[in-house]
Amino acid sequence: MTHPSAETPSVFRGRLPNLAVACTALVTPLLLTACGTGVVSPEETADAGEAVVITNCGRELSFGTTPTSIVGMMPSQTELLIRLGVQDSLVGQAQTAVSPLSDDIAEHAADVPEISTDAPPAREDLLAVEPDLVVSPTEYEFTAEQGFAGIDQLNQNGAEAYVATGGCAERRNTAEVTDLLTDIANLGEILRVPDAAEELTQESEERLAAVESAISGSPRPTVAQVFIEGNSLSAIGAGVEADIIATAGGDNVFDPDSPEFADFFAAEINPEEIISRAPDAIVFGVSGPGNEERSLDYLRSTFPDLPAVENDLLIAVPSSDLHPGTLGNIEAVETIAHRLYPDAF
Q1: Which residue, 76, 92, 100, 86, is CA-closest to 39?
Q2: Domains (ranges, CATH) in the chain?
Q3: What is the 3-state secondary structure (H, E, C) of 208-235?
Q4: Would you tell me how many other CB atoms lie within 10 Å of the CB of residue 201?
Q5: What does the pLDDT look like over 264-316, one tens digit per residue?
Q6: What is the 3-state secondary structure (H, E, C) of 56-100?
């Protein structure tokens, strides 16, 4: 194995790109997705009392009042904010082409200005909407060298930057699915929506507990998690991506403690690395139906004799469900677990 080079696409700068989330149904009094995560009514957000102080990525964030001009830096973060009931405070949504919002969320975001499509917004575009809070999946979105607004620049313009716990640079390789619960709790405090945060937390915990209960005591199949770009193959061995596999009941054939993943959660590999490990299943991120079909063709033609191919355990997961700090992490756990343990559900 080799580490991705410095020129590796943004998929290896701390997050996987593109992905579609599917899950929709109606429920009263407001909308509720099929996976059970509803859109709540905005709570009263009185600003009386002490300032909210949160430690995030080693930085101290302080909020004397409730943020009223918020930007979601990825559709997954925009969704989380809407499900917390603060859609009326959104002044921008970024990287909107990375993955579509589900129908029930999209209607709440319809009037929110799009400030970028397939990449983080340029510095001037983000600052132009005058945010007081920017919520992001990783620290990459604040790389000043890429022309993005840095955290210091945002602070100087009166905005705080909240990065998903699992997307903090020092935690990127050791992130866990349950880091999402930290984000929900933190955002609930920052936005003064404790009831919505508690409801979302309880539902998330119940969904994870249901998976754990269903697969408890079952033999764990071996799983390889990969990213495919053309004929380039990379293994995912650490980070929230690897914890998703573990939480879904898979035994990752790549060791997160191995030297290949010491500095980064992914590493470029040769097909022989997969063949030698003979995984029972292969999980791969996709950005849409076309990308999924191309990836399936590659896997079937490259690994025709692997147990994963012979048993049709090639499991596609929307890449956006693998981003840190997204409710899609739980959806990914459920998707993978249902395929690995079809008789348990």
Answers
A1: 86
A2: 18-209 (3.40.50.1980), 219-340 (3.40.50.1980)
A3: HHHHHHHHCCCCCCEEEEEEEECCEEEE
A4: 16
A5: 888 999 999 999 999 999 999 998 889 999 999 999 999 999 999 999 999 99
A6: ECCEEEEECCCCCCEEECCHHHHHHHHHCCCHHHEEEECCCCCCC
Please tell me the pTM assigned to this model.
Answer: 0.85
Contact partners, residue 206, CB within 8 Å, separation at least 6: none
37 and 329 Cβ atoms separated by less than 8 Å: no
For residue 330 the two structure tokens come to 């739980």
Per residue in 157-187, pLDDT (tens digit) is 999 999 999 999 999 989 999 999 999 999 9
Joined tokens for residue 119: 């990449």
CA 5 centroid distance within chain: 23
- Which pair of tokens denotes residue 201? 């937390």
HEC secondary structure over the chain: CECCCCCCCHHHCCCCCCCCCCCCCECCCCEECCCCCECCCCCCCCCCCCCEEEEECCEEEEECCCCCCEEECCHHHHHHHHHCCCHHHEEEECCCCCCCCCHHHHHHHCCCCECCCCCCCCHHHHHHCCCCEEEECCCHHHCHHHCCCCHHHHHHCCCEEEECHHHCCCCHHHCCCCHHHHHHHHHHHHCCCHHHHHHHHHHHHHHHHHHHHHHCCCCCCEEEEEEEECCEEEEECCHHHHHHHHHCCCEECCCCCCHHHCCCCEEECCHHHHHHHCCCEEEEEECCHHHHHHHHHHHHHHCCCCHHHHCCCEEEEEHHHHCCCCCHHHHHHHHHHHHHCCCCC
